[in-house]
Amino acid sequence: MEGDVMDKLDSKAAVCDFDPIAGSIPATKVEITVSCRDLLDRDTFSKSDPCKYFYLTGVSHLSQFGRTEVIDNTLNPDFVRKYILDYFFEEKQNLRFDVLHLSSSSSSSQDFLGQVFCTLGEIVGSPASRLEKPLGFSLCFHVYRGIPGKKCGTIILSAEELGNCREVVTMQFCAHKLDKKDFFGKSDPFMVFYRSNEDGTFTICHKTEVVKNTLNPVWQPISIPVRAICNGDFNRTIKAEVYDWDRDGSHDFIGEFTTSYRDLSRGQSQFNVYEVVNAKKKLKKKRYMNSGTVTLLSFTVESEHTFLDYIKGGTQIHFTVAIDFTASNGNPSQSTSLHYMNPYQMNAYAMALKAVGEIIQDYDSDKMFPALGFGAKLPPDGRVSHEFPLNGNIENPYCNGMEGILDAYHQSLKTVQLYGPTNFAPVVNHVAKYAAAVQDGSQYFVLLIITDGVISDMAQTKEAIVNAAKLPMSIIIVGVGQAEFDAMVELDGDDIRISSRGKLAERDIVQFVPFRDYMDRTGNHVLSMARLAKDVLAEIPDQLILYMKNRGIKPCSLPPPYEEPGAEDHDHTLTTPI
């Protein structure tokens, strides 16, 4: 059985995919869908709000690969967010899934609901590539110890090979005369789309927003990768369910209909008006016709561009670093300071800078990077600055590569006085000013902020981030030291999009992580830096793609001719922040 599955998955491997360094041929990419059933209830007055973390384990390390969205108030979640993995037949790809209950809006407040270990081959090799396993609480590999007298629930993992389709379909739907479900109002309808599987089951692929208090909703346009809705099989059945949203999570089923990608591709026509049918209601009532109708209003398809499409087309990524020089870091001459320069090893600031910068620098042609500091008193007059150049040159703050930034950082520690407060808004606005000048897709800006403490200008920083979210720009914040960084989580819009003065950020552009979470227990700094870089840089490609998509910017077919810039260009250019 497993051999047949592997033969099928191997059919798309090509010799050109072979990586002589890794020594492995990726047979294919597979999409992992996750559901849970009968989870433990950790809420006092409602059901748990589960979120799943997924870890990919290797021979000697464990790294977080992704996490699902949070689903409110349910013990039987079907997660929409998928995991896409390279599948290798010849490797044992260990996976770990942790299920957490988020008890508040802060991701730091969590209850552990259960854990499961398996391999990717175990999922793929299961009947219909669908694996069910009991959740356990043990941290020991392949040993499950639940709470005595209680079952922790089960996890359902499904794998499907992905086709090479890179198109995205955008559709808009409306409904007419849906059933009234609310006692005091009408209904709050939303739709859930599923694609059919080979074994006759269905996999969730999209949810619309909720339209409040109407029986005739018009939903916002939805964009779904074609591979997600039909995986390239245009005749595959697509099921749509219509629900009335309830605050307690017990959404009322209104009805459903089925269609296919081929039918939907006809666009707005009489063929794409669907009766919403509730089978149970139909059995009970002889004169039952339907529970309303759903109409396709529009249907468009466009190619999905990747991060590498833009890089190949000539998009340059410009890197700026901003380092915290506030007094809470401690006296740099003392070994207890976070800025202490140990002659035998890098401090946390240097490690974070080197880990992120050495990867980003490969996407910047001239390797010249502005490096800023904030929160220090500067000579000769002792004025406090929150955006001073580390090399001391206001006219030309560029440093040559990572070594140049590290040298300027070490020199600054000898000349400035650590002070305060911890203000982020000035450096965010500094980079945003230059990002605003180049919005044609030719350049993208990444700001790395390394800090030891709690932010002092939260309101101003939130406003700066909301304004920057519409620009070609991303922000990485790395917290060093042992301070509590709970307030920083608010800036990272993974779960709740950041807002300021009632204005929501157009994109999530901030990734915050505490460096201590990535420190290797054996003291292997190379491994610590690799873990940090992988996590903080993982969101940059999607953030860049979303900016380009929102602006309708397509990759250039050929990169523009490159001319080596002269040193004098750096004093005046707007292509990189100064």
From TrEMBL:
GO terms for cellular component = plasma membrane
Q: Where is the composition biased (Basic and acidic residues)?
A: 567-578
Example of a GO MF term: metal ion binding
- Region annotation (Disordered) maps to 559-578
| One Pfam family this sequence matches | C2
Q: Which organism is it from?
A: Esox lucius (Northern pike)
Q: Which family does it belong to?
A: Belongs to the copine family.
Q: Does the keyword Repeat apply?
A: yes
- The protein, known as: Copine Va
Which SMART domains does the UniProt record give? C2 (SM00239), VWA (SM00327)
Alphabetized, the UniProt keywords read: Calcium, Metal-binding, Repeat
Ranges for domain C2 come to 8-135, 151-274
Q: Which residues form the VWFA domain?
A: 318-544
The family database entries (SUPFAM superfamilies) matched by this protein are listed as: C2 domain (Calcium/lipid-binding domain, CaLB), vWA-like
